[in-house]
Every structure is written in structure tokens, then in C-alpha cells.
Specification:
Oligomer: heterodimer
Number of helices of chain A: 4
Mean pLDDT of chain A: 89
Distance between the termini of chain B: 65 Å
Number of strands of chain B: 17
Strand content of chain B: 5-15%
Number of strands of chain A: 10
CATH topology of the largest domain in chain A: Alpha-Beta Plaits
CATH superfamily of the largest domain in chain B: Thiamin diphosphate (ThDP)-binding fold, Pyr/PP domains
Low-confidence stretches of chain A: none
CATH superfamily of the largest domain in chain A: ACT domain
Shape of chain B: globular
Structural class of chain B: alpha/beta
Largest interface: A-B, 24 and 24 residues
CATH topology of the largest domain in chain B: Rossmann fold
Mean pLDDT of chain B: 96
Number of domains of chain A: 2
Largest sheet of chain A: 5 strands, antiparallel
Distance between the termini of chain A: 21 Å
CATH architecture of the largest domain in chain B: 3-Layer(aba) Sandwich
Radius of gyration of chain A: 19 Å
Helix content of chain B: 25-40%
Number of helices of chain B: 24
Strand order of the largest sheet of chain B: 2-1-3-4-6-5
Strand content of chain A: 35-45%
Number of domains of chain B: 3
CATH class of the largest domain in chain B: Alpha Beta
């Protein structure tokens, strides 16, 4: 089962490496990874997507929690958190097909970033599932490059119950 | 003052008595600071691995943080094995390494290596200092992390130019590590549940690991066992946490544990793991281990709870606190009428009588078990610390040495580091000069770190090496004979080359050779009485194997007993 972990760390050299090294050493796989600053200076958030059993998840979380630079580990509970990802794609689009592609993309909330003689660059922000759908939609045109940031997320503003689960609490 | 001075002032502020190391280019400014004066004794090892294991032996014998110091590059990489060993066995260790000048980092400079990168998976934390003013705070944090929570190794890497740079030194009173919050308390409800389960168990067993020693919970353990009349088994790492002459001690579990110990572990109804981690060498086939038992698991490290075996009742926290509270709870339950498990204790005693450790003595050969039995007879009731290498001799030491007081048995359990014994013994001697320190070693292990005998002699840290010399890499030989149809592959070392006794003399110690049972005890007695560094080369039967044995991957109760005399003779013919 897939899980999203939000790891808040002190922004110190090696903080990310220590986490990824732990995953490698204990034989866990990372599906996606996003790193960036938070509202607090000197504090970063690492969002990890992992595919593992509940038992493994608890091990992962407890092992991460022991790392000296890690301030907090939470799981973003599916449905109770807003999760977003950014996709940027370069699609081959001859002039006669360009309008159709751009219209479709914009209907899905995509945005045209750049236009060339036979290709366009589009971006889309959305849930990972929306990005998957958009990816499929572009495929027939011919995808030249595609990058995704990996998902990030926060609890819903309207969260009725706790949208995050504080792990490592035995 | 300089950064090098600041390192030493920090060690002094931490109350460090002794450090183990070797100088080299990138650590020279700190050694220069030593020459200017420090209260910390420096023990000059002959190889950084030796320095690291000495620091480990010191830590395990004293309960304090061990300190090793080395230069960059090869000096640092030679510390990797001790760091890995300390990681696996949770030994508190601060390693200080010199690094090339800041301006040269990343340029493949002479003796440069990324030691913080190399050691990342095997340290609790590490620091590459990038500002001389950070040295006191980093040192403070390093000691704090090494000894709090689950003990373990940390590394401080200091570029040479920062050791030379100057700072206004002041040692911080508080450590600033917002992300480091090991458990300091124990949940009373967890303790209550654990206490009830234990007190009402019909067949309880306390499964005691090395965490009990690290957590200084031995007195509390004794109280728990006695107040509840609870049988105790101690793992290889937990050996000496509980007095082994005590009527409630029932041996050592696992691959080469006596049958009665494994029967106790695997037929109990409540298994109380105390600072133990369900290692494969203890459990055998995990799915068949202690079937149906309720698992109570006490540990300071939450990540150990349910890592391998799901815990029914977890108790997370410092073990001295946890075990103490548990003893109170069990005592209260007993007072309210929870019955003492008399029938179970009688069963355990019956098993112990029924399945003793056995070997066959021989007119032709000295047997390794005889060596350990003689050592046990001679050291019983004395203040003796035993260290070991890794292999057959280590298992015989586990079986035949009766540890009496905490921290008197020091061995490499998790990593299984051959060559650990001699330097660990030297470190233990530095920690406890009043104790007699004996290294039970194998001939294979001996040759991995024998050069440290020089350190023992020249630093006046005498140790007695009881060499169980079977001319082979014995444990590998045993596996080849038992599981690979006796195809011996590169395991023969010879008993005579090197001449261990003469080698001991060459290093400035005393050498003795024993090849018959009659000479054994007088020679060992003489060696123990000399007060010098001695190697007693005991030429033992190379065909002797360690039994009982749980074959790898087998269930604990599928253990093999000592084989027939015929098998032994056949193996000897090889």
C-alpha cells in the first residue's frame, strides 16, 4: 500500500542523505521525494511516497525518527490531506494539432508555458491521479520530456478528524 | 586557543580519562595540542582498528563513552570496523578524525576521504566541522548523542585548518539538539500490563540482552528476577548482566546455547525481552521461535519494538527505570497472590540436569572446553574481565565462563568482528586497571590484531591472552564439515606458524605453550599471576566442534547435540 510521509528536518548538511541512506540500508523503496523550505527558517520538509506494508511503515517511521536532524515525522492520511504535484511536459505538437492540445490541456487546468515550431511546453498542478490522466492524454502527441516534482501535502483546512497520524508513538 | 586545544578541553570537560589513537597528517594540530598538555591519557595503538576496539573495550568495561582518535583517509577508514561493531552492539563511542584542510575538501587531496559519508549508515550521527567556533558545541552534542537513548557510535571530522584556527573557548552547559529526544520516562500503564502478564505467567522467562548492561539496569534486573522468582537467560551480549552462579540463571540462548536455555526460551508462555533484539543467532527460524508466547518487550529504542517479533506488551524507556518499575509491579502482584511458577522452575532445573554441556576428553589431545573450564576454575570469585574474539572459542567462552558481575564479559556480538578480543582487552584494562583482564582468543582472530600486544606492553596495560589454538579458522571449518560435506576450503592456518609464544616474546610479553591437559592449569595459573602481558598458546584438538548447534535457518528446538565419538575421529582424519 502507498503511504505519504512528511518529514520535518533541521536544514543541515546531510539531513536528506541520512534519510535516503536509511531507506537504502533497510531495504525500503522511495517512490517519490520532494524537498523544500517550510514556514520556519532553517527547517525543511521532505515529503516521501513509499509503497510498503503497515508494518514496514512503522519501522521506517521509527528509524527516521531516531535521526538526530529529524524534528517530526507524520503520515498524511489519504483523503484527509491536500496533496499536490507539479508536472512539466514538452510535447511534440505540429501547428495543425497545437490548438487542440492546448485547449484540452487548459480544460484540465494545465497552462501553456512555451511554444516552439513543432513542440509546446505545458504545466499542470494537481493530484497525482490528475497528473497521471494528463500524462496519458499527452501520450498520443508524442512526449519529448516529462518531469514531475513528487507530491507534497498538508492537512485539509476542513479536516474533521486528524489528517495526519503522528507515528512512532508506541 | 586553537581548535585542537578546544577538542582536548572538550574531552576534559566531558570527564574523559583516556583516549586511544594514532597521529597522522590531518590530526597533527590536535596531537600538537596534546604535547602542550592535557589531563586525558593517550594510549598509542599500532593500528586504528586496534584503537577503535580499545575504545569499545574501555566503554563496555566502564560504562562510559569510549574515545578513539585518528587521522584522515586511511586512519579514518581503519576506524570503520570498530564503528560498525559499536553500531551493531550499541557501544557508546566518540571517534574524532582529522580531515584535510577545508580548502582541499572535495579535491581528492592526499589522504582525503569522505569519512562522514562512508560511515553514515553505521553512526547515530556525525559532524563535519566547518567553523572552529562550533567545536565545543559539536563535542558536547557528540558525547550526548553517543550515550543517551540507545548507545552507539558518533563521528566528529575536523579539517586540519580548523584544528589550527583560534576561537574563544567556552564549553556549553546545554546541548542544543531539537531533533534528538530519546525516551526518558516509562509509561505506567505499559508497566502495569507487563507486570500483570509476567506475575500471572505459568512459564515466564526473562530474555536479557546487552541493552540491560548499556542501560545500567543489572541491579534492577536482579531485583525483578528475585522478587518474582523469574528465570533468566542472558544473550551473548547480555552475558554478565546477571550473576551466572545464581539459581535463577538458566544459561544463554541461541545457536550454540545449551539445550536447556533454548528449551526455556521456546516453551515459555510469557517471554520478557529486556534490551534484546530477537537476533537471528538467538531465535533460529523466527517463525518457529517461542511459538504462542506472549511477548513483553522492554527497550529504550522504539524501533526495536515489533521489528522482528510483534510485541504484545511494549515498554519503551530507559531500562533502569523500566525494570525497576516492573519489579515493583511484579512484587505487588505476588503480594496479592499471583503464584510463583514453581513447577516451571522445577522443569527448567530438570532440563539443566538432563542436558548438560558435554564433550569427550581424550588422551591424545587437549580439548578447548578443558581450557575454558580451567580458566573458569582459576578465575572464579576473582575480579576478572573476559574478552573474546569471534568464532568457536567465543562460543566455548560463552558456555564455560561463569560471569559474576556486570561488564565482566566483553565480546563482539552483532558484527562478529574477528580480532576484537586483544584490543578490547587492552581497553578494558585501561578502564579497570585493578581487574585481571583475559582475552580468550582464537588463532585466526589473534592474527588480525596481534600487533596491539605491543600497546599492552608499552602502555603498561597487561592482558592475558588464552589462545585456543586449533590451527584453523575453526567456525568456518565446522560449517564446512557439517554443511558442505567436509570440503575444507582455505581454513587451515597451522598450529606452529607463527610461533605464538615467541611472537609474544618478540612483542615484549611472555609466551607459553600448552599441549597437554596436565600442564594446562599450572600454566594458566602462572600466566594470571604474572601481572604481565602473556600469551598462553593452548594447542587444542582441531576436530572439536561447538555443540549444541541450531543449524542455520532451523528452528531453535531442532538443535543438534554433541555428535558421536566416531564423527569426531573421522573429522580429525581430514
Amino acid at each position: 500500500m502507498k503511504h505519504t510521509l512528511s518529514v520535518v528536518v533541521e536544514d543541515r548538511p546531510g539531513a536528506l542523505t541520512r534519510i535516503t541512506t536509511m531507506f537504502a540500508r533497510r531495504g525500503f523503496n522511495i517512490d517519490s521525494l520532494a524537498v523544500g523550505p517550510t514556514e520556519r527558517a532553517g527547517v525543511s520538509c521532505i515529503t516521501l511516497r513509499v509503497d510498503c506494508t503497515q508494518h514496514s511503515l512503522e519501522q521506517i517511521e521509527k528509524q527516521i525518527h531516531k535521526l538526530v536532524n529529524v524534528l517530526r515525522v507524520t503520515e498524511l492520511v489519504s483523503g484527509e490531506a491536500v496533496e499536490r504535484e507539479l508536472l512539466v511536459i514538452r510535447v511534440s505538437a505540429a501547428p495543425e494539432r497545437r490548438a487542440e492540445l492546448v485547449t484540452t490541456a487548459e480544460a484540465l487546468g494545465g497552462r501553456l508555458l512555451d511554444v516552439g515550431s513543432d513542440a509546446v511546453v505545458l504545466e499542470l498542478t494537481g493530484t497525482p491521479e490528475e497528473l497521471d490522466a494528463f500524462h496519458e492524454l499527452c501520450r498520443p502527441y508524442g512526449i519529448l520530456d516529462l518531469v514531475r516534482t513528487g507530491r507534497v501535502g498538508v492537512p485539509r483546512a476542513s479536516a474533521r478528524r486528524r489528517a495526519t497520524r503522528r507515528l512512532a508513538a508506541i | 586557543m586553537t581548535g585542537g586545544d578546544a577538542i582536548l578541553r572538550s574531552l576534559e570537560a566531558e570527564g574523559v580519562e583516556v583516549m586511544f589513537g594514532i597521529p597522522g597528517g590531518a590530526i597533527m594540530p590536535t596531537y600538537d595540542a596534546m604535547a602542550r598538555g592535557t589531563t586525558v591519557r593517550h594510549v598509542l595503538a599500532r593500528h586504528e582498528q586496534g584503537a577503535g576496539h580499545m575504545a569499545q573495550g574501555y566503554a563496555r568495561a566502564s560504562g562510559r563513552v569510549g574515545v578513539a582518535i585518528a587521522t584522515s583517509g586511511p586512519g579514518a577508514t581503519n576506524l570503520v570496523t570498530p564503528i560498525a561493531d559499536a553500531w551493531m552492539d550499541s557501544t557508546p563511542l566518540v571517534c574524532i578524525t582529522g580531515q584535510v584542510r577545508s580548502s582541499l575538501i572535495g579535491t581528492d587531496a592526499f589522504q582525503e576521504c569522505d569519512i562522514t559519508g562512508i560511515t553514515m549508515p553505521i553512526v547515530k550521527h556525525s559532524w563535519l566541522v566547518d567553523d572552529v567556533r562550533d567545536i565545543p558545541a559539536v563535542m558536547k552534542a557528540a558525547f550526548h548523542v553517543a550515550r543517551t537513548g540507545r548507545c552507539g557510535p558518533v563521528l566528529v571530522d575536523v579539517p586540519r585548518d580548523l584544528q589550527e584556527a583560534t576561537l574563544d573557548y567556552s564549553y556549553p552547559a546545554e546541548v542544543e539538539l531539537p531533533g534528538w529526544r530519546p525516551p526518558t520516562k516509562v509509561h505506567p500503564l505499559q508497566v502495569r500490563d507487563a507486570g500483570r502478564a509476567i506475575a500471572h505467567a505459568r512459564k515466564p522467562v526473562l530474555y536479557v540482552g546487552g541493552g540491560t548492561l548499556n542501560g545500567n539496569a543489572c541491579a534492577e534486573l536482579l531485583r525483578l528476577a528475585e522478587t518474582g522468582s523469574l528465570p533468566v537467560v542472558t544473550t551473548l551480549m547480555g552475558k554478565s548482566a546477571f550473576p551466572e552462579a545464581h539459581e535463577l540463571h538458566f544459561g544463554w540462548p541461541g545457536m550454540h546455547g545449551p539445550k536447556w536455555s533454548n528449551l526455556a526460551m521456546n516453551t515459555c508462555d510469557v517471554l520478557v525481552a529486556i534490551g534484546a533484539r530477537f537476533d537471528d543467532r538467538v531465535t533460529g527460524k523466527l517463525s518457529a521461535f517461542a511459538p504462542g508466547a506472549t511477548i513483553v518487550h522492554l527497550d529504550i529504542d522504539p524501533a526495536e519494538i515489533s521489528k522482528l517479533r510483534d510485541a504484545d506488551i511494549p515498554v519503551v524507556g530507559p531500562l533502569a527505570t523500566a525494570v525497576d518499575a516492573l519489579a515493583d509491579e511484579v512484587a505487588a502482584q505476588r503480594a496479592e497472590g499471583a503464584p510463583v511458577p514453581e513447577a516451571w522452575l522445577a522443569q527448567l532445573r530438570a532440563w539443566r540436569d538432563e542436558f548438560p554441556l558435554v564433550y569427550e576428553s581424550s588422551d591424545e589431545w587437549l580439548k578447548p572446553q578443558q581450557v575454558l573450564e580451567a580458566l573458569q576454575r582459576l578465575t572464579a570469585g576473582t575480579d576478572t574481565i573476559v574478552t573474546t574474539g569471534v568464532g568457536q572459542h567465543q562460543m566455548w567462552a560463552m558456555q564455560y565462563v561463569r560471569s559474576e558481575r556486570p561488564r565482566s564479559f566483553i565480546t563482539s556480538g552483532g558484527l562478529g568482528t574477528m580480532g576484537y578480543g586483544i584490543p578490547a582487552a587492552i581497553g578494558a584494562k585501561a578502564a579497570r586497571p585493578e581487574a585481571t583482564v583475559v582475552c580468550v582468543d582464537g588463532d585466526g582472530c589473534f592474527q588480525m590484531t596481534a600487533q596491539e600486544l605491543v600497546t599492552a606492553v608499552l602502555e603498561d596495560l597487561p592482558v592475558v591472552v588464552v589462545l585456543v589454538n586449533n590451527a584453523h579458522l575453526g567456525m568456518v571449518t565446522q560449517w564446512q564439515d557439517m554443511f558442505l560435506d567436509g570440503r575444507r576450503s582455505h581454513v587451515h592456518l597451522t598450529a606452529q606458524v607463527p610461533d605464538y609464544a615467541r611472537l609474544a616474546e618478540a612483542y615484549g610479553g611472555v609466551g607459553m605453550v600448552v599441549d597437554d591437559a596436565a600442564r594446562l592449569e599450572p600454566a594458566l595459573a602462572e600466566a594470571l599471576a604474572l601481572g604481565r602481558t602473556v600469551v598462553v598458546d593452548c594447542r587444542v584438538d582441531p576436530a572439536e566442534q561447538v555443540f549444541p548447534m541450531i543449524p542455520p535457518g532451523a528452528a531453535a528446538l531442532e538443535m543438534l547435540d554433541h555428535p558421536s565419538a566416531d564423527t569426531t575421529v573421522e573429522a580429525r582424519a581430514l
